[in-house]
Amino acid sequence: MLKRIIYLVYYLRELDTKKAKLFYNTVKKKTGRSAFTLTADIILSSMKYNISILEYFQFHFYKLKEEERRNYAGTGFMYEYQLIMNPKEYRSVLENKLEFLVKYKEFIRHSYASLSDLESDSLIAEKILYNKSGKVVLKNSYGQCGNGIEIISTSLLNQTLLVKKLRKSGNDFVEVFVVQHTLLMQLSSSGLNTIRIITQINEHGKVDFIAARLRITINSLVDNLAAGNIAAPVDLETGIVNGPGVYSDITKKSELVHPVTNIPIIGFQIPFWHETVQMITQAALIEIGNRSVGWDIAITEDGPELIEGNHNWCKLLWQLPAQKGLKPVLDAYLKKEK
Question: What is the DSSP code string of 230-298?
């Protein structure tokens, strides 16, 4: 009980109050429930199922029965699960994006450079700035959820200006902008639409594929759900999208077609799917200390390439497109730990 109280305090401390108020009022109006009963259900659900306040709304707990609620993996459960599967001593290669790019270089096609590289070597800066895409991406090596990312035209930069821009933005490395496959560009051209594949190393040391999701940008430079974009489920066997695009914002309805391009989402075939699965199977075995990883993959005209790996992969991106709780999938792996 004490542990759950500590979690609840954490959830309240980290709460996005503006978003919570919007969701609260939306659900209160939709369900007709009193403020007392809704608030009580939120607090009790957070305690019982170890979910955050926002997850109560995002998982639609207000309309679920007990047997449906218990199938959802919330923040608390995921934190503990990922701590077991990805111990802290192995996480550095996934936490530090520059370290990741070195470790997984065989699966990465685009060029990149750290701030220190750019400061010390003009040839590296030249290679980065004179690229076919005509753009570069500024990132922080420990950045999360697309925060702080900047995309800039190379026509506006030289070595000195690039270094200055990195320092001013708080970012510490730059990547050549990845140009996605034509089909993904037609689906949405505002940003890079990446594939999230979640893998788990099983008790036999083999790679299990937990899920695949297509993240789709909507007038956004980044494809994260938190930035107002959508995600859709992908069939692991075929690479075909088999469900609508969903938001993490409960005030918005799921999308059957892209709201800007009108391209159908269900039935969309991700190019190079066989090659993508093959690549991730190999990548997942490079550092087996991290057994449960969420991989972000770009699909280009030349095939798939890795963007990053996440030890703390998102429970929303995993479960919301499935429109059901998937905690039993992870429970099965935990049972084998004992």
Answer: EEEEB-TTT-BB-S-BB-S-TTS--BSB-TTT--BSTTPBPTTHHHHHHHHHHHTTT-TT--EEEEEEE
